[in-house]
């Protein structure tokens, strides 16, 4: 018996040193930390450095100018216009990020089956299309006097404005073109939220004699509130990014700055005017603004959770 115990004790591996146990998690986290440093924090730090330099992306001797890039950038009317237009994009995209996808998800949720799955797949198809290819297609469709839209309207005796060349219609058209992909993606998110709804509460409402609208209004919608808040916050933060490709391909910020936004302005400063300092200053400003916005949203959600 003692010989068996001694043999097992001899065969058992010795315990790992304490230093080795402490270092083991870092072996798993190391690649992730390295990736964050190389691809996120490193470029962000370098952008901050560039924001205080005067550099045209070519000169070997950048000049330190301090906060002059920030002062000049926000003294330009183009920057103010871009900020205002970004606000218009946010307001225009909000219904397409919340109301429309939620309505579609509810309609498909109430009619389960193969037909609903087929409609869901069809509605989701814009998400898998390449943004650049979609923008180019719309450019041909909306081309004045030659595009399919103008041909159909003219053939029907209806007026056909220059959709992308008129400041009154260009921004709404960009919003509508972008909305197809946003509605499709958010519809799937709302469908996922609906799949997690407590069916017992719905059955209880029906037993109590609630109508379909009353069940939706007082039982289903409150359980979708967190998804609505999340997608609203996401729209506020990234609506300008959603429309970037369409703006860059279809209007390049025109006509007369009607479709400009802060993300396209950043691109123009860096790659149209070759002003790395101004572009970096705008990038730092956007990053700081988003950080404050995310912090405010997180703080509001935490306070709401604590109040419950």
Order of helices and strands: HHEEHHHHHHHHHHHHH
Low-pLDDT residue intervals, each spanning 5 or more residues? none
Q: Share of helix among residues?
A: over 70%
Structural class: mainly alpha
Mean pLDDT level: 85
Strand content: under 5%
- Biggest pleated sheet: 2 strands, antiparallel
SS field, number of helical segments: 15
Tags for this model:
mainly alpha, two-stranded antiparallel sheet, 1% strand, single chain, 15 helices, 308 residues
Any overview of this molecule?
This protein has 308 residues and is an all-alpha fold. 77% of the residues lie in helices and 1% in strands. The protein has 15 helices and two strands. Strands 1-2 form a two-stranded antiparallel ribbon. A hairpin with an 8-residue loop joins strand 1 and strand 2 (63-64). Helix 5 (99-110) crosses helix 9 (167-195) and helix 7 runs parallel beside helix 13 (244-251). The longest helix has 33 residues, at 18-50. The radius of gyration is 27 Å and the shape is globular. The N and C termini lie far apart (62 Å). The model has no long low-confidence stretch (mean pLDDT 85).
């Amino acid at each position: 018996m003692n010989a068996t115990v001694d043999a097992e004790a001899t065969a058992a591996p010795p315990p790992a040193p304490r230093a080795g146990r402490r270092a083991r998690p870092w072996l798993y986290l190391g690649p992730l930390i390295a990736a964050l440093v190389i691809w996120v924090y490193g470029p962000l730090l370098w952008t901050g450095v560039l924001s205080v330099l005067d550099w045209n992306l070519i000169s070997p001797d950048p000049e330190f100018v301090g906060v002059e890039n920030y002062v000049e950038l926000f003294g330009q009317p183009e920057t103010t216009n871009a900020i205002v237009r970004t606000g218009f994009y946010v307001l225009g995209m909000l219904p397409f990020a919340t109301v429309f996808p939620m309505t579609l998800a509810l309609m498909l949720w109430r009619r389960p089956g193969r037909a609903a799955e087929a409609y869901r797949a069809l509605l989701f198809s814009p998400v898998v299309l390449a943004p650049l290819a979609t923008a180019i297609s719309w450019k041909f469709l909306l081309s004045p006097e030659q595009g399919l839209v103008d041909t159909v309207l003219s053939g029907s005796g209806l007026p056909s404005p220059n959709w992308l060349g008129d400041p009154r219609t260009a921004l709404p058209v960009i919003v509508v073109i972008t909305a197809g992909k946003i509605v499709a993606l958010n519809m799937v998110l709302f469908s996922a939220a609906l799949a997690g709804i407590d069916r017992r509460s719905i059955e209880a409402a029906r037993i109590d004699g609630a109508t379909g609208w009353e069940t939706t209004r007082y039982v289903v919608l409150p359980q979708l509130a967190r998804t609505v808040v999340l997608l609203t916050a996401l729209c506020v933060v990234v609506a300008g990014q959603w429309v970037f490709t369409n703006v860059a391909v279809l209007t390049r910020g025109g006509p007369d700055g009607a479709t400009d936004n802060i993300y396209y302005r950043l691109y123009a400063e860096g790659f149209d005017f070759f002003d790395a300092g101004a572009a970096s200053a705008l990038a730092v400003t956007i990053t700081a603004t988003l950080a404050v916005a995310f912090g405010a949203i997180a703080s509001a959600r935490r306070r709401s959770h604590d109040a419950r």
